[in-house]
Sequence to fold (627 residues):
Amino acid sequence: MNLRWINSLLWGNSVALAWMWGLGLFFSVQMTFMFGLQGLLMFAVPNAVGLALFGCLTQIVAKRHAGGQESLARFFEKFSKPFRLIFYLYQVLALTLTVFALTRYLFAPLELVSGPMTALYLCMVVFVVLAAGCLFGEEFGIERIKFGHGILGLLLLACVVTVLLSLDPLVPAGLSWGAADPAAWAGPDLPGYFIPLLIGLLVGPWLDLQHWQRAIQIHREGGSIRGSYLFGGVIFFLMLLFHGCLAAWVMNRGGLETYGKSALESLDGFRYAHELIVQYIDRLDAGSKGMLPVAYFTFLGICALTTLDSGYVALKWFLGANLGKSQNLLVGMLPKRLLESPIPTFLVVGAITLGGLWAKLELEYFMVFYASFFVGYASLAIARCFVPNSQQPLPQIRMFSLASISLVIFAFGYFTAANFLLLLGSLLPLIYVVWLVVNADLLRVVTERAGEVIEAASEIPALKAIAKTATVATGKDVVAPAPQDAHALGGHFEGKWFVYSFIATYQDTNSVGNVYFGMYGLFVGKTRELFFNQVMPDFDLKTTKFYILTRSFEHKFVREAREFDVITVKIRVADFNRKFCTLEHQVFGSENELLGKGKQSLLFVSSKDYSLLDIPSEVYSAFIPYV
Fold:
């Protein structure tokens, strides 16, 4: 085995461990309890396939966007912008779900502390679990995490072997394909879970920051994303299979009866068995336990720890790339180190976890988000990677509204065990995304064909005769009236964009005949000055207390323009913080084709000594309507 495959195996192990969070860890037990081994496979197969598909498809994305080892990183930087809040919420919920599941289904059933001290004990457990995730995340980082997880993976393998050797017999007689007690669950049946699990698990990895960061790092190292995630999918499937089969073994050995007598029904009236194995091991005789408790509890701890440290590393990377560099006014008032740190997020995770424990929630109450709310966003993310027609601006309000409606429909279907509502809650976001993509395609086709239809219609003899008659009657060519103030001398506003149009002439071109590249900066500069004149007409250089200076200027060239082309420059206020303001610009040609785009950062200094100032109140009042 060469080094490339060893690297893929190490990353595959890390992928599997990071994905073995509360959703896979304890829900595999619950699925086995509800529906037996058939339910376990229905959960494990699409889960592992979705993980492998993510690696295969991101490999294609990396190859399609040329740029060497940084191509996927540059793609993600642009691709993730409309989904930043969703990426963050997804990660927060995943971490919360993991900490909640470990506390609720491992430490709480053991009842190491009882009475009034129980609440304090659970608070301490949550704090220690989160602190461990922060410690390991800070220690390793994305460059070394595969080695740390490699060591933990070997320890986990030893735990699995120890557990298997402790089972006597390994395969008990009477082990059935279906549920050990079909009447114990009393909730939605197997068909109601099939479509939500299939959709949610197949698209789930696309909103997980941990996987995007891993894929980018693998590609940066020159490794195979596809190979790593295929390894990861196989390892993950085996881990789910081990945990689910262990639950089936416990139920066959009498654990189900013990659990059924002691467990309290949940808030929804259904019966949950996430802690089935923990309770069974805890109630074994001291002489028959052996190494089983240590091995199994270590297995659970490693699975949770490798999710939390991965989440810490991913959040640190994501927050640093977004909040740490943001020029938003409110964000700019907070310390940069605080913004880039995942610790405040981990504190939020701890607070939500404690709230869930106090309310006696179940794992499934967190999981409904992944089968409904996030489905539309994940599906649209996949479409924007591979379907050219899906690159329109993200309809944030509509997407959020539909996601919330789907969540409520799915939750209502879950509580009432209505299969139709479960299916509708999962399929509705997917159907809406398909409609968005198809609708955008139809709009593009109509736009492209409209010009061809008009041009073809102008050649019809009857229309030619009408046009000729109109020309004779007026004595001149018929010209459609120009929009009012379309080319105002000092520019005009279109929504929040300030627009200025002019005709390029000989002095703007070079020896080849196209507009010289340096002129675009002058075009944007002139438009900016006209914009200032429109929004601050009373500004006077003789009496002003501040000057506006250019801090940085960026421009990306897309197409060329030539002499006598109509050039239109659009400029608007994109963002600002306490000190700096960012203007965004776009340059268009005669056919409304994009010639270039970019941005510039402005700073403000005192007119007396050129000391740096906060954004003056006059500028703030003038600019804020156009943000």
User: Anything to note?
Assistant: The longest strand covers residues 594-606. Residues 22-64 form the longest helix (43 residues). Confidence is low (pLDDT under 50) at residues 260-264, 443-455, 466-486.
